[in-house]
Structures are given as structure tokens and as C-alpha cells.
Amino acid sequence: MTSPGASPGAALGTQVRVVLPAHLRNLAGVHGEVLVCLSVPVLTQRAVLDAVESRYPVLGGTIRDRRTGKRRAFIRFFACEQDLSNEPPDAPLPDAVAAAIVAGTEPFLVVGAMAGG
Amino acid sequence: MTQVRVLAGTRKGAFVLTSDGKRDKWSVSGPHFGGWEVYHMKGSPADPDRVYASQNTGWFGQLIQRSDDGGATWQPAGNDFGYAGGDPGTHLWYDGTQRPWEFKRIWHLEPSPDDPDTVYAGGEDAALYKSADGGLTWTELTGLRVQPSAPGWQPGAGGLCLHTIILQKSRMFVAISAAGTFRSDDSGETWRPVNRGLHSEGIPDEDAEVGHCVHHVEAHPSRPDTLYMQKHWDVMRSDDGGLSWTEVSGNLPTDFGFPIGVHAHEPDTIYVVPITSDSLHYPPDGRLRVWRSRSGGNEWEELSAGLPERDCYVNVYRDAMAVDTLDSCGVYFGTTGGQVYASADSGDSWAPIVRDLPAVLSVEVQVLS
Questions:
Q1: Which CATH number covers residue A96?
Q2: Domains of chain B, first to last
Q3: How many CB pairs under 8 A join A and B?
Q4: pTM metric for this prediction
Q5: DSSP annotation string for B208-254
Q6: In chain B, whose CA is at the least distance from the CA of A113?
Q7: Chain A nearest CA to B361, separation (Å)
Q8: What is this model's ipTM?
Q9: Could you report the per-residue pLDDT of B162-197, keeping only the tens digit for each?
Q10: Sequence-separated (6 or more) residues with CB below 8 Å from residue B193
């Protein structure tokens, strides 16, 4: 749930941690977490994802639909043990989540939905 | 020294199989793009080291990969596939309603015979794309999708997929399941359905202009007016560039199947893999067989040497058969059981060249001098 009030922004040059699923790490040619640089007044899901795609253009279309910008159906966004997947992409992240991401104590996780049965 | 390279796309990655001209010992490299579905890979006739691959998952969508060293290394190319012109319009959905066109994946890649940077792609929902920069950017050839019959196209069980692309200079053919075959005489600007003679019991008007579930179409380069088709049911032939079709199923044990192949040097020699039925996607009696006609259809012979005699319940998908151009024509096909079978003698005898891949979606072959 998005909390009311202003979410902390990311000052110029703030680096935030992003965890990508294995297939996207392979595609981007990275190992482990990635750091992306943000400079936004309010931290939002879209701001993080724009920064990821800006740094790794090959990921364009793999997390969000290129045309609509919507999250692909089998992708999830987690942070601080919260599911942010269905939050509006331009809504400020919850204060505590944004603060932890900006501080670097928690990553923003892009997760491939579980498959099984 | 002659080298043969087989490109196998599978449910869980791409594999490259290589041999010398004898084609009796093979090495396997891969998986490339492990864990991703690779619907199709194909090399450029103009530069065999240029290979394109269609890589997809339900999680992360569509990618196109490009190799400039014959599949040893790969670079992601462009994956911006949209429908040109804003509102893409609608097509018929399974429940009879109209549904907006929605891009899902690329089924087939067809490199230009003349230019390694030019490649065509067939998409789901049915659309034809062209790239002139080695796959970096793609443009839809909208003339197909705005063809007057398009709002009536309905997906088959596998989706509304454009799976066949045949390039004959300014003349082109595409096939769409379950719409039918379409022809352009102006390099893809305008299109018309070419399905006269097709008869499909699964649609309300069995002789309709569109609505036929065409599974695959092939043509021999030396005889461009002759087309061979494996339809949902029925093996068909056209000798007038698709304007009319006649059934050539003849003595086949069943005329349901997916791929059809044409011998590299004998334009009347064709191959199919009969499958039991539309509800039983495995060979009759658990015996995997290729059937060959040397007369362009109607008279067929069973090819069994080296193929499983019993307990075989695999399928062979529409893009999973290919021929090479060596003097003794090689024929190849891949199965949903992960085997790729090869014949170095035009189908007289067969052997698996790899046995335990993921389900094979596509097979293409290149001969390298």
C-alpha cells in the first residue's frame, strides 16, 4: 500500500540497488546487484525502472511493455518485503521503502513470477 | 572443406550442431539463451556467418539475437515490434468477439537472399516485419494486416501466428494460422489471400477465402510457381503461385501434420511427417515415419530406416524440418522429444544426430564451403 505524504526523493547522483532476475542479468551482462543512478524529487517505481532501462537499454521491453509501459504480467516488483507490483508506477513509493532504497540499505527487486504447479 | 551447420531452436534454448560433409559425426554447442524459447533461427544466404534467432519467454517477452560468427557468439538486436499506424484495429477472437491486435512473439525469421542486413519476421498476432539494419529496428509491412479480410482472422490453437515467409524477389508469400496463405506481388506493399481450393472442415464455410489453418508452405527456388502446403489436415499443391490448390495427400496414412520439405535438387520430391490427428499429436501406431513423394504428391513412400519402430509419441513442429544443398541432399527434422534426425541420402536412411535436447521448435541447416 502506498502511504500518504511525500516520499523521499533521490538527490542528484544517488545510486540505488536493483536486483534483476537471472535471465535479465545474463541479458544485461551483469552479475549480482546493479546500481543505477537516480535524480528525482520523488522516488517512484517508474523512476527506478527508467533508470534501469537507461543504463541497460537491452532490457527495454523485457520488464515493461514497450508500448503501454505496463508491467509485464509475469514480472513482480518487491522492496522491503512489500509487493509493489500493482502500485501505480507514478505513485510515490511508501516512505519507509523509499528511504531504505535511497539509503542503500534495501534493494529494489525485479522478480520473475513463480512458475509451477 | 565442406561444413554443415544445423540450427536447432528449442523450448529451452538454441543449439548449433556441426559436421563435415559426410554428416556422420556431429558436435553440439549450446544452449545459447538457456531457458528461453527459441522459436526460430536462420542464417543469411548472403553471409552464412550472420545468423538471426528469435528468443522469447512469457516472463520477459521477445528478443532478437544476432550472430556474426555462425552462432558462436550473439548480440541482442532490436525488439521493438509494434503495429504501425496507431490504433492496430481488431481481429476475431476465440469467443467470436473482436479483440485488438496484440504482439506476443516472433515465430519465423526469413533473411533476405541478397543482403545479410535485411531480414523479415513473422509475428503473433499476425504481422509481417522487416529490418534493413541487421535486426536493430523493425518496421511493420502494414499492407498485410490492413488487408480487407484481416478483421475476420481468428487464431488457431497455437495463436494467430504468421509462421511462413517465402521470398521470391518482389513476390512474397506468407502463411498465417488460422487465416491462410497470402501473396504480395509488390514486395509486401499489398496482399491478397490465395486459398482457392483449400477445404477445411473445421470452419463454417469449408471453402472460405480465409480461415484455413495452414501449417507450413514451401517452394523450390527453381520452380517458384509451385508451392507445397501442409495444412491442418490435407497436403496441398499449387502450380500457379497459389492462385489455386489441389490436394495431393494420396496414399498417406494420415494427412495431418505440421512441416513439409522440398528436396534441394529435385523440385518434385517432397517430405512430410504424418501425425495421427488434430487431437493426437503423435505418429500413428507409435512409429515415427517420414513420407516422401517423388512426384510432387499423391504417390508417397514410407521412409523408416533408422527411425523409431515403436513407442514413439513425439510431434514434429512446422518449422522443424530442413534440407541441405549437398549433392546427396540431407534432410533434417527435430522432435518434441528433443531428437534431431538427419538423413544424408535424401531420406533413405536416418540417424539421430542429437537425442536429448529440449523439445525442438525449429531446425534450419547451412552448408559452408
A1: 3.10.20.30
A2: 3-368 (2.130.10.10)
A3: 39
A4: 0.95
A5: -SS---EEEEEEETTEEEEEEEEESB-EEEESSTTSS-EE--TT-S-
A6: B59
A7: 20
A8: 0.88
A9: 999 999 999 999 999 999 999 999 999 999 999 999
A10: B147, B149, B179, B180, B181, B182, B209, B210
